[in-house]
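Section 5.1 Outputs to date
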Amino acid sequence: MQNNRCHLFLPMDALKGYKEALREKEIVKEPRKTLLEDEEIILSNKILSLKEDIFVLIKYYDIYNYQLIKGKITKINYTYKYLYISDKKINFSDIIEIIIC
């Protein structure tokens, strides 16, 4: 009988999801940059020249801000417009800069 009553005295979150909402508000979001037409063409040509098993440094937008990732391209899908570096999937539309190492 005593085991059944234990859950009555556990602390509870009166406002479900409130703590997560507060944490999300604390995150500073960096706005996406828009590329000029010339920059888009250069980036598009670089993406088309990429091949699997080469090392690259990519700057891309990830949820709230820009990230840098360096590694070997393990998969490229030109139809659905994404690539994988190790286990990280990056959409072409999120990429802002590519440096081939």
